[in-house]
C-alpha cells in the first residue's frame, strides 16, 4: 500500500512518559515514526516525564508537572490519575485555544475516552490505539478488586472502542475482543513488530559486552530484557536459574531492566539462593541489541496477561533461540516451530533453557523458524502497510462524513512542527 496522497495534521494523545524505554512508549514512538515518514504532521500531547525524540513533523507538547512527581510506574496508579487530569487540561487548551485545526485525533490507552468526546466536538474522526484491555490491567497489576472500578473500566473501554472510527489493536487477543464487541470491521491488527530499536548504534561486540558484566567468552548465557512487573515472571526466572545452574555448568542469566530498588531486591534474593543472575539495571534502548548479540538464548517467563511482549518481535529476528512460557501472551505469535514453549513452572523453564543450551541443532531449528516467521508475518513493510490501511480507513470515514482534511494550509504562528 502506497503512502496517502493527503497528509493529515493529527492531534495525538498519549498518557505515557514519552519517551521511556518500555512497552507502550516504544509502540507510540514507532507509530509516530511511521506516520511522519508518510508526511503526516503529529502534535503529541503527553506527560511531563520522559525525553524528547527528534523526528520530522513531530511537535511534543507536555502537560504541567506536579512538584511531587518525578516518574510514572507501569499500570494504574494514583500518579497517573493526577497526571491524566493535568494532561486533560493541556489537551483541551491545545484543541480549542491552540490556534491549530486538526484533521484527526489519535488516542492511546485511557485518553481514548477524551479522544472520542473531543472528536465529536471538533467534528473530526477519532482513532483509538488499543494497547491493552483496561479491565484486564486491574488484574495484571493487582491494582484493585473493586467491582465498581472494574465496571467503570469496562464502560470506558466500550465507549472508546464503539465511539472510534478506527481501532488499532496490537495483538490477536485484543483484536478478538473488538470483534466480540461487534465492531471488528473498524479494527486493524498492527503488532509491535518494530521492536525497541530507537536510535540504534554500532555495538562493542559480543566478547566486550560479556566482559563488561563479568561473563566469560564461552559461558552459556540466557538473556531476559524488560520490566520487573509481577506478571513478567522474574520470580519464576529466579527459581529456574537455580535449577539451570545444576544442569548446565557455568550457565548464567543476564537480566537487563528494572528500577534500582527492584534490581537491589532481586539481587539480594539471588545471592541468598545462589541463583546465577547478572543484573544490569535499566540500559539505553540502543544497547539492547548488543546484549542480544552477547547471549545464547532469549527467555520470556511471563506468567499472566494476554498482550504479546513487544520484545518478542525483535527476538524473532535475532538469530537466537527463544524460550517462552506456553501461555496466550506468547502463543498468539509463537509456536513450537519458532520457540521452545514451556509450562510456567521453574522446572519446565529450566528444562527448556538447558535443552537449547545443550542441543545446538534444536537451538538452530527454532532460531531459523523464528526468522522465517518474522520475514513472513512481522516485517517492517507489514507494519507500515497496516498503519497506512488504518489511516486509509480513517480518511474514508472523513469523506463519508463530508470532512475535508486541512493539512497543507500553513500552520498558525508559533505552531510549526519541529
Structural description of this entry:
The strands form two sheets. A seven-stranded parallel beta sheet has the order 3-2-1-4-5-6-7, sandwiched between helices. A six-stranded parallel beta sheet has the order 10-9-8-11-12-13, with helices on both faces. The protein folds into two domains: 207 residues, Rossmann fold, CATH 3.40.50.2000; 171 residues, 3-Layer(aba) Sandwich (Rossmann fold), CATH 3.40.50.2000. With 418 residues, it is of the alpha/beta class. The chain has 15 helices and 13 strands.
Q: Could you provide a short overview of the structure?
A:
This protein has helices spanning 23-37, 78-97, 112-122, 134-140, 147-163, 172-180, 206-212, 234-247, 260-273, 288-294, 311-316, 328-331, 346-358, 360-377, 380-400; strands spanning 9-14, 41-46, 58-62, 104-108, 126-130, 166-169, 187-189, 221-225, 252-256, 277-281, 297-300, 322-325, 340-342. It is an alpha/beta fold.
Amino acid at each position: 500500500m502506497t503512502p496517502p496522497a493527503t497528509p493529515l495534521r493529527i492531534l495525538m494523545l498519549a498518557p505515557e512518559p514519552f519517551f521511556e524505554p518500555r512497552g507502550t512508549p516504544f509502540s507510540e514512538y514507532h507509530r509516530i515514526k511511521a506516520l511522519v515518514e508518510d508526511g503526516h504532521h503529529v502534535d503529541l500531547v503527553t506527560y511531563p516525564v520522559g525525553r524528547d525524540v527528534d523526528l520530522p513533523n513531530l511537535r511534543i507538547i507536555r502537560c504541567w508537572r506536579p512538584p511531587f512527581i518525578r516518574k510514572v510506574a507501569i499500570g494504574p496508579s494514583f500518579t497517573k490519575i493526577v497526571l491524566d487530569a493535568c494532561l486533560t487540561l493541556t489537551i483541551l487548551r491545545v484543541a480549542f485555544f491552540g490556534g491549530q485545526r486538526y484533521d484527526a485525533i489519535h488516542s492511546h490507552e485511557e485518553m481514548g475516552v477524551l479522544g472520542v468526546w473531543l472528536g465529536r466536538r471538533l467534528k473530526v474522526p477519532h482513532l483509538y490505539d488499543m494497547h491493552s484491555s483496561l479491565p484486564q490491567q486491574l488484574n495484571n497489576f493487582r491494582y484493585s478488586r473493586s467491582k465498581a472500578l472494574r465496571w467503570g473500566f469496562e464502560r470506558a473501554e466500550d465507549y472508546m472502542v464503539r465511539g472510534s472510527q478506527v481501532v488499532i489493536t496490537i495483538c490477536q487477543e485484543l483484536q478478538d475482543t473488538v470483534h466480540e464487541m461487534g465492531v471488528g470491521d473498524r479494527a486493524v491488527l498492527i503488532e509491535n513488530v518494530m521492536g525497541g530499536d530507537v536510535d540504534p548504534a554500532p555495538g562493542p561486540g559480543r566478547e566486550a559486552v560479556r566482559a563488561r558484566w563479568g561473563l566469560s567468552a564461552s559461558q552459556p548465557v540466557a538473556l531476559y530484557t524488560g520490566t520487573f512487573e509481577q506478571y513478567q515472571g522474574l520470580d519464576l526466572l529466579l527459581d529456574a536459574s537455580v535449577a539451570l545452574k545444576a544442569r548446565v555448568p557455568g550457565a548464567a542469566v543476564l537480566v537487563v531492566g528494572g528500577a534500582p530498588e527492584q534490581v537491589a531486591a532481586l539481587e539480594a534474593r539471588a545471592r541468598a539462593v545462589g541463583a546465577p543472575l547478572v543484573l544490569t539495571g535499566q540500559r539505553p534502548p540502543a544497547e539492547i541489541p548488543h546484549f542480544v548479540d552477547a547471549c545464547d538464548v532469549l527467555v520470556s517467563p511471563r506468567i499472566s496477561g494476554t498482550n504479546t511482549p513487544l520484545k518478542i518481535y525483535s527476538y524473532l529476528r535475532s538469530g537466537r533461540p527463544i524460550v517462552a512460557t506456553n501461555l496466550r501472551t506468547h502463543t498468539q505469535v509463537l509456536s513450537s516451530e519458532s520457540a521452545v514453549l514451556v509450562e510456567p513452572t521453574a522446572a519446565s523453564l529450566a528444562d527448556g533453557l538447558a535443552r537449547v543450551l545443550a542441543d545446538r541443532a534444536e537451538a538452530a531449528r527454532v532460531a531459523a523458524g523464528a526468522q522465517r516467521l518474522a520475514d513472513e508475518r512481522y516485517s517492517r513493510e507489514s507494519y507500515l502497510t497496516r498503519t497506512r490501511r488504518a489511516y486509509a480507513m480513517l480518511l474514508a470515514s472523513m469523506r463519508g462524513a463530508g470532512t475535508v482534511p486541512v493539512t497543507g494550509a500553513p500552520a498558525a504562528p508559533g505552531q510549526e512542527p519541529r
